[in-house]
Design goal:
Elements lengths: L1 H14 L9 E5 L14 H10 L5 E2 L5 E2 L3 E5 L4 E6 L14 H13 L12 E7 L2 E6 L19 H4 L13 E5 L3 E5 L4 E6 L3 H9 L5 E3 L4 H8 L4 E6 L4 E6 L9 H10 L2 H8 L5 E2 L21 H10 L6 E8 L2 H15 L3 E8 L1 H9 L5 E6 L6 H7 L17 H13 L3 H10 L3 E5 L2 E6 L2 E2 L16 E2 L3
Parallel strand pairs: 1-10, 1-11, 15-16, 15-17
Antiparallel strand pairs: 2-3, 4-5, 5-7, 6-7, 8-9, 9-10, 11-19, 12-19, 13-17, 13-18, 14-18, 20-21
Helix pairs in contact: 7-9, 13-14
Length: 477
Amino acid sequence: MKIKLFKFILIIIFLSPLSVFSKDIIFGIPQNPQNINPLYARDAASEKITDLVYEKIFNYNEQYTLTSKFVSWKNINDLVFVFTAKSHSSKFSSGREVLLKDLYFSIKKNHHDPLSKYFEDLKNIQHISLNGSIIEIRLKKPDPLFFEKLSLPILPYDLDNLKIDLSQSSLGSNQFQIISNKPLILLRKDGVRIKFEEVKDPSVRALKLINKEIDLLQNDLSLPIINYLERQHQIKTRSSPGTNVSYIGFNHQHELLKDPVVRKAIAHAINREEIIKFFFNKDTQPASQILSQKHWSSSNQSPHKYNPQLSKNLLIDAGYKLPLSLEFKTSTDTFRIKIATILKAQLEAIGINLKIISLDWGTFFKDIQNGDFQLYSLTWVGLKSPDIYKKIFHSNMIPPFGLNRGLLQDEKIDNLIKESYDKKNWDSALEYIHQRVLIYPLWYEGNFMASLDTICDFQLTEDGSWIGLNNIRLCHD
């Protein structure tokens, strides 16, 4: 009996992916995700986590065109779309195969939940039906970008009956499932566990890596820290160009910032090249628009060149008595505060006194969502569709209905956005956005990762996602 019990224990130890001998791979991140429910994941960390856990009905390839492993699709006319099930092999973490009615349920759930971040995108749906292996969707009015709005996370059709709280756990069909929320731990299908550890200070994050308290980190590091990590023989590093755009946002209802002259003066006062040279890695590039130049909708825009004298002349010629005073909100991340301090010095040179207000991430992001700011800086992560221009600039997209957090109300850009949809050409809208400085794109931040030499097969992506965790492993495995 004892021999049989001993053999049983050996089998459990050597075959179980969760054995006591397995080691978590610890990923150091600057902020914990705010909400791991894929319907409400609005901050960058939450979106990156949910992308690891949930497959989507549609995805984008490297050419920014849509693909789907689940359905083929066609237009019957401008209002009716038909989706036919493909043969595929995907299973939820529960073990059940993904069915067409799961896709149907996922669309309907987001369509009916006014709190879902996808709700506004799907409001144009008039009717959706499921008949055998076909989903049919009828729209209220034509939308050339409707397919792109179906890049939705796939949820099981019986989710409501399962009584699962997706803000605490998960039930997706991608490579990972969430097995712990605090601390956040993901389990990959092959048994690899990733533990996410929040380390807000980038210097501390780097030191934790060197001291082997964490296994890897990615992005959100200043150039001196990057250079220091690259000199450490026991640390592996890699960098690559990125498509995530950092930008300055404006409150368009503010008495000063509603004037395009003030916004243009701010744009010409910022020496982006100098900031990039001394604070970011070699793969960071200045930006002139939100989506990267590689995107099919991009247009050629001449960047606002650094010219502080022009900035000051613009303000004086417009009748402003200098100095002016503005508030700039940012997070408590020391690197972001450092960038804000550089911006403050550059704006003071043209007669704008900038008061920096640094807030913990949750409070900062909530203020931005509520339009409670004058100026702020953030980074758009993972953008793939020109539909973003409607979400952040159209008058109908003021929160909670969209992402027009700057409270812009401009009939001209509303009409140009409609024209862009109709013509499938965004040049005129992008020119207007650029000339009026409705938002000020700063740079496409280059990506950087560093890990212990015991970590293998982690790959960087252009959009800074954490999809590289799909293949990461301990090198001796």
